[in-house]
Design goal:
alpha/beta; elongated; Rossmann fold; 228 residues; 26% helix; 2 domains; five-stranded antiparallel β-sheet; six-stranded parallel β-sheet; single chain
Length: 228
């Protein structure tokens, strides 16, 4: 897919990194020349970066918004995110727009405009790649202090033999799982429920585990959870 991101801050950068790693094409519109310089060093050379205002149709055109499958606004200003998504949809006909909402009170306005509104702690990559794969690692947010990231890991289900009982697999206690240094499991989701993880929590295939870790440990965390 081709995704245009308005906002090259930490969240936009992290989202672009994940999408590029999953072989999507990405363009970023960013107003700060300093951030563009930073992104040019951290993102692959093939990434299209536009220095300009994402609320201006000229810069959206330069980013190829008319060819985009999805337009994502990740700036820290709700009005900027709203306007840029409206332009992407109404001017360029982008079929899907997703916006970071900084004030939860504004979510209703975004949704009334047909924009998928998510808070900065939501899994934006899951919205974009709606076919979430078992064992995948999804970026939730980049924490502002200490280069920490919050991620979600889906524990893969194993194939079942015909005639097996329908009982849950035994799973494994969190206390018995060896994780890389600098990482911590903090919550687990099953269906509609979410609970805080303790050492006695038992994880099962199909669970979605929320982790906090140093940036770059996501793959190692995933590997540690694959054999549950």
């Amino acid at each position: 897919m081709y995704i245009v991101i308005n906002g090259g801050g930490k969240i936009g950068e992290y989202l672009a990194t994940k999408l590029l790693g999953n072989r999507h094409e990405v363009a970023i519109i960013e107003q700060s020349a300093k951030r563009i310089d930073h992104l040019s060093l951290t993102l692959p050379a093939k990434t299209l970066m536009i220095l300009g205002d994402g609320c201006d149709s000229v810069y959206q055109a330069d980013a190829g918004t008319g060819e985009a499958d999805i337009f994502v606004a990740t700036t820290g200003l709700d009005d900027v995110n709203l306007v840029s998504c409206e332009i992407a949809n109404l001017v360029f006909g982008v079929p899907r727009t997703i916006a970071r909402v900084n004030n939860p009170k504004n979510e209703r306005i975004f949704r009334q405009m047909g924009i998928e509104a998510v808070s900065s702690t939501s899994v934006i990559t899951r919205l974009i790649e709606s076919e979430a794969t078992e064992g995948a690692v999804h970026a939730i947010m980049s924490l502002t202090q200490g280069d920490l990231v919050l991620t979600e890991v889906s524990i893969p289900r194993r194939g079942r033999v015909v005639g097996d009982d329908d009982d849950e697999a035994p799973g494994r206690r969190v206390a018995d799982i060896t994780l890389p240094a600098g990482s911590l499991l903090v919550a687990v989701g099953r269906g509609e429920s979410l609970e805080i993880v303790t050492g006695s929590t038992v994880l099962h295939p199909g669970d979605a585990v929320i982790c906090v870790s140093k940036e770059g440990l996501e793959g190692a965390i995933r590997d540690a959870l694959l054999d549950l």
